[in-house]
Amino acid sequence: MPGLIAEDIPVNQPSLVQPALLSKINERQVLRAIQARGPMSRAEVARHSGISAPTASKAVESLLRAGFLEEGDAPELGRGRPAKKLRLASERAQVLGLVIDVEQCRVVCAGLDGEIHRERTGRFPTPATYEALLDAAAEHARRMMDRGGVATLGMAISMPGLIDYRRQRGVLSPNVPLTNGRSPGFDLAERLGVDCVLVQESHALCLAERRFGNAQGIDDFAMLDVSAGIGLGVLSGGRLLTGHSGLAGEIGHITVAPDGRTCGCGNQGCLETVASDTALTRALSQRLGRRVGLEEAAESIRRGDAVACEELDRASRYLAVGLAAVINLFNPSNLFVHGRLFAADPALFGRLVEETGRRALPPSFAGCRIVQAQGSKRQGAVAAILEHLTNSVVPALSPEPNGAGAW
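Request: output the structure for the sequence above.
Response:
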């Protein structure tokens, strides 16, 4: 075990490292090796996990029994005899992800390899009440769980707003207030009979980028989510920075316009009131005297409409203030930005980076790569439940060499 030396164990005292714990640590090593490298033979598993062949084989058998792994034939080039390969379960096991958003919720299922089954996805308009949300989510989930011979190992719920991780409960969501004071993870677990965990949507995006996107192999980065609100996730030393109870990262609620619009959080002039998708569509609606949705706003920007482009530039200048604050505060090696409007104006992202460079501290800006995120909130929910299941084997005792750790 890293950090454990002989002098740490008192003479004539029973070891604190019990055999059962050692077995679980070995299982975690095997699971991480296959997650990182894909299907492998048992000999390859032993080599890449750094444990002996008999120990690796014992860990593999335990993971096969638990449904985390599957083993099957895979032809090897140049040989007639197929080799048995261990892979993350995808035929006889699945996980679910629920994305709660302002206007629409989505339910997806995936194998333990993280591959989303796009033919088995569901969506529904975000209901007006919490009970209706549970009903709709449970209905979609049960439909996906009703597959003969396939075990559902758990679900993760990506949700906007402040989340108390210690209590697995929503605290304050200015954009989806029906979740305030609610625990959809506990409530859906009771209805579905599977383990359900709650994760803040910016943290889910971090996990998605770490597993599926541009952040693979990166231990320190920040993720800014620009959508109905503005959220921030920070990965430091391979672990999410959550704060005392999970409320860290609410950069959308720093004040940038003290006499500005009242935010859903009750304060005035928060960053998300001037730099989010909602802020842009609200400003356009006011100027045009009618309600403008995000799709119409994006189309107006693509056409080069002067009013839409002017409001977009105004929002992006405020957004650059937020990016500069992230760079100055956290000094990340990489800053990923997730947002839908960048597709409407291919030049927008470059202008945003330029403006950020004028506002951030030069040394910090010079050492930070700013790129568009690839991961989605659906992938984030899947990544969150996969991370939870991995940690259920045995929690990470310290940040792992590859940067993967408990969140």
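Confidence is low (pLDDT under 50) at residues 1-17, 397-406.
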